[in-house]
# Entry
Amino acid sequence: MSSIEKASFEEIRGVFEEAYRIGLASTRLGKVADYIPELAKANADDFGICMKDADGRELSFGECEKRFSMQSVSKVVLLAAALAHCGFEETFSHVMMEPSGDSFNSILKLDTTSNLPFNPMINAGAIETASLISGDLSFEDMLAYARELCGDPGIALDEAVFASEFETGDRNRAIVYLLKSKGVLMGEPKRTLDLYFKMCSLSVNARSLAHMGLVIANGGIDPATGRRLISPEHVRPLKVIMFTCGMYDYSGKFSVRVGVPAKSGVGGGLVCAAKGPMGIGLYGPALDSFGNSKAAVKAMEHISKELGLHSFD
# Structure
């Protein structure tokens, strides 16, 4: 199949169905995150894919309704909110735009190479981003925005995950106080960290993430309502940061193999903003060594190849 533009909907359905089978077979190759105890309760065999396009068409296979915590996918929401609230220049005067090449929770380069976090898609960068808005935007404001972006009024704080995050989040506390010690943290540490932990603990599903991906792929406009949720001048940097930094230190290989703006989370979620425009949400809590869903990555490799979704094709 040459491209998404030339494929019939039935051909697209066939590609996604095969991708679901490929992903499902890959779940056994991954491992559920256990450093946050509540995440360890997930079923490693779960997998689901949902696709939404601008014409209102939808495909879903597997576990598309099961709720899981957003985790690092929430970094996309935080960045979009910071860009809207602070603007491009102000936001990126406090966090850089460079891939780090390190683990998502690493503090090595923050301590030894740069005072500013390398990008908003790693923990240090997302915490800095949260600090930019934590003084003006409440968690309730951010929850409402996440519900809009995801087209999902059912998104709520998972209290059990939040308690688990709070209990085990010592490395993130180290990051927030390291940022403060360098004079770059823009918000009060406890308030910043509370917002960050709560955003990571929002409960979504594959369908929610497909909708978010579609909004981003559609230039910031929700096709279901016609409402603009992300400004035109902010869509490009959001997509580029997702493309270059959204898959932890597997981002380079994912960009070469899949070539779609994406963001993963250790809860098993993956949001993709693809050509079409098309939003793809995936859920598979069995992770690879980088913290990405093993099944979701395998599925996206197949979908991108068969439908010509790579940004440089």
Notes: The beta strands are 31-32, 48-53, 58-62, 68-69, 156-157, 202-204, 262-264, 269-274, 278-283, 286-287. The longest helix spans residues 9-26. The domain at 9-71+205-225+233-307 is CATH 3.40.710.10 (Beta-lactamase).
